[in-house]
Inverse folding.
């Protein structure tokens, strides 16, 4: 036993002596000291006195790598200046069908039909035959005036009755008018063709605007 104890003490000191060299730069050295009364302390310097010493080389803690910077926010999309266009849609031009007292029908651009004078009649009294002349009065027991006679009382201006046509019917009549103008142009006199051409241009413009050009 006496020969083994020094050997055990030598074996214990060998690791300490081997570790006495400077620790690697990335490590930190900690000394574990155990006093005779069993109190254990950790320190960064070798143990003093008769403390039992144990050297521990520990990896030096490192700060975590810096977090990558957050990506820069995407640039705001450019503001697109939108052009605002105000389109005014003109309502289709109406067309009216008018009826005369005789039942004849015709088309008009206005809801006011053709005017005509109509006589006005009223009831009146006219003197009986022979009355009112000279100084002789009516025979006794007779009435000097003839009652209940219809008499003209002037005239008044009235217009034909007109009603608006549906837009589909308006387009159909414009097409019929266009073909009628073309037919009349082929047989018209030279002096009449200019007026027909002007009217046809107006019909074509109205078809383009109100009927889709068909």
């Amino acid at each position: 036993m006496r020969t083994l104890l020094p050997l055990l003490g030598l074996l214990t000191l060998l690791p300490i002596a081997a570790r006495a060299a400077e620790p690697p730069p990335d490590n930190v050295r900690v000394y574990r000291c155990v006093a005779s009364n069993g109190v254990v302390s950790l320190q960064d310097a070798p143990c003093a006195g008769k403390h039992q010493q144990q050297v521990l080389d520990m990896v030096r803690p490192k700060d975590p790598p810096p977090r990558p910077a957050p990506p820069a926010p995407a640039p705001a999309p450019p503001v697109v200046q939108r052009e605002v266009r105000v389109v005014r849609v003109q309502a289709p031009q109406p067309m009216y069908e008018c009826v005369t007292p005789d039942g004849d029908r015709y088309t008009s651009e206005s809801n006011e039909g053709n005017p005509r004078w109509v006589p006005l009649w009223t009831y009146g009294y006219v003197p009986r035959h022979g009355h009112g002349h000279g100084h002789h009065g009516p025979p006794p027991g007779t009435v000097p005036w003839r009652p209940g006679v219809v008499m003209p009382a002037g005239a008044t201006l009235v217009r034909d009755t007109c009603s608006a046509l549906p837009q589909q019917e308006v387009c159909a009549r414009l097409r019929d008018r266009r073909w009628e103008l073309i037919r009349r142009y082929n047989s018209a006199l030279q002096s009449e063709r200019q007026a027909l051409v002007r009217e046809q241009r107006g019909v074509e413009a109205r078809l383009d605007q109100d009927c889709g050009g068909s």
Summary: Residues 171 and 211 are 6 Å apart (CA to CA). The chain is about 25% helix and 30% strand.
